[in-house]
Request: fold
Amino acid sequence: DGEHFGITASDWTDGLYPYQFGIDVDTQPEEFRTYMYTDRPVYRPGQPVHFRGVVRSKLDNDYLPPEFDSVEVEIHNSSYETISTETLPLSEFGTFSSTFTLDDEAPLGYYSIEAWLPIETDNDVVNKGQISFDVAEYRLPEFQVTVIPDSPEVLQGETITAVVDTRY
Reply:
């Protein structure tokens, strides 16, 4: 139409690849994009985990709120066992949020939160958003090392003298 155009090829060879021209060649583009985040990356057992998400429908170069009104959220522990499932409503802007509290005896390790979108697809595209975080115990440092140089500035290749103090 004079404003939009397209290009196609059955075979890009001889050193010519679409990415070299800034051409996206995704053969199974996502219909939706989900962005999720937690309030911090590491938690201890017994602490609350606050998370939020934004779902957008991808139509050409536009990102619009989706037409559905909720997402199914699953939280998995370090063994990928489901520890929580809930359906969260989407706001008019396509956002959702929630809080859950880790068990006082929660196993340590890598956890994930998955937001499944209520849509069917004709291809192998998985329509979900995901964020991960760690559950760890705080430990006091077992030792401390302090290094105090004789000179505040040193040029590369010069020798330096320093006092090293260690405590266990």
Observations:
- The first strand starts at residue 32 and ends at 38.
- Residues 71 and 121 are 16 Å apart (CA to CA).
